[in-house]
User: What shape does this take?
Amino acid sequence: MVPEQDMSQQQLALRQLLLRAASVVVAVVVTGKSLDRVLAQEALAGRAAVQDMVYACLRDYARLCAVRDAVLVRPVQDDVIACLLLVALQQLTVHGERAYMVVNEATSAAASLRPWARGLTNAVLRNVLRQGLLTHVWQDDEACWNYSQWWIDAVRTSYPDDWSLVLAAGNQHPPLTLRVNLRQTGIAEYLAALDTAEIGATYLGDEAIRLWHPLPVQQLPGFAAGDVSVQDAGAQRAAHWLDVRDGQRVLDACCAPGGKTAHVLERADVSMTAVDRDANRLQRVKDNLTRLHLLAHCVTGDAGKPADWWDGMPYDRILADVPCSASGVVRRHPDVKWLRRPSDIAGFARQQAAILDALWPLLALGGKLLYVTCSVFPQENQQQIDSFLMRHDNAGQQPRVVAEEQLLPCDDYDGFFYALLEKI
Assistant: This one.
């Protein structure tokens, strides 16, 4: 039996977490702020629990809205209370054993913000408890798939055979995949280390190992020593596509947070220049390289303005992991589904074209440029490459295997697009 004092502390902690999570959801869906940036401002104590609540709420956002609105007599005009209801409803779906604690603490949380909201919050949550999840209200596409209608339509048009699988994958919990640093250890050796630590894992090929269950990186054997990094298996394909050789000059033009930069350096002895416009994110690249015992020339700069940082010497290989909609990695960034607008895709496409055009003169004759996005939208992917090839008669696309170029999110990896261009 839980002591009364401990129960009281648990209740107070839950109330505070609900309030913090609701505030984050408001910042994302109402004011349009990036989830990563908002969470970074959260107090360290309890941040992981807040993040779990918010991620779960945003994954199911449209369904939760449908349930909430179905039991309301009239819409809630107060954004904080409206989002608090969503967070609490999501908690009811995963914590049935403490459902009444969730109701009580959500009601108290609402009352601490808006006294008038006590009765409304209590009534909504208890109504849902009595009626169940009200799955019958998930009739429209948005509630069924948990995406905006324009997104659903775009994916359905682009992938008429696989659209439902793509949407469903974006609502799953992402896999936690490792990249083994072959400069320091081998695949068999690291799998044995995981087995010794009683950490279940599956080898996916090349340097990729998927863990059966997520866990903090500090618990991974050899992580601090640089034996392994966390990187999606789909993202790990970049270093293989780039086809680097010892002695080459390589540019990673949009490098942060540095996973692809490090992977290239793990595979070959190259002269690496890593560029990113965000100095704070570039510091993360430096920190990762230090942990992995790797060296690169890290430069703060805009990939679209190489005149500000380029030394004038051509590169043998260029990795252009360009800004994009992130539509292929929404299970890792659930806020993206609700922040993006249809016009954003055209905006990203213009930015991508400008970066490609700016980087192309930096590539040596016979050199290769790998264009990468974590998007599933064709406007950012092959359509972008087709337009580039029309503008540049000294560019050719390497032999294409569509299934390998456009990776659709699945159990083993996220959604990515790859196109390898050669200067001829």
User: Anything to note?
Assistant: The chain has a mean pLDDT of 94. The first strand starts at residue 177 and ends at 180. The two ends are 74 Å apart (CA to CA).
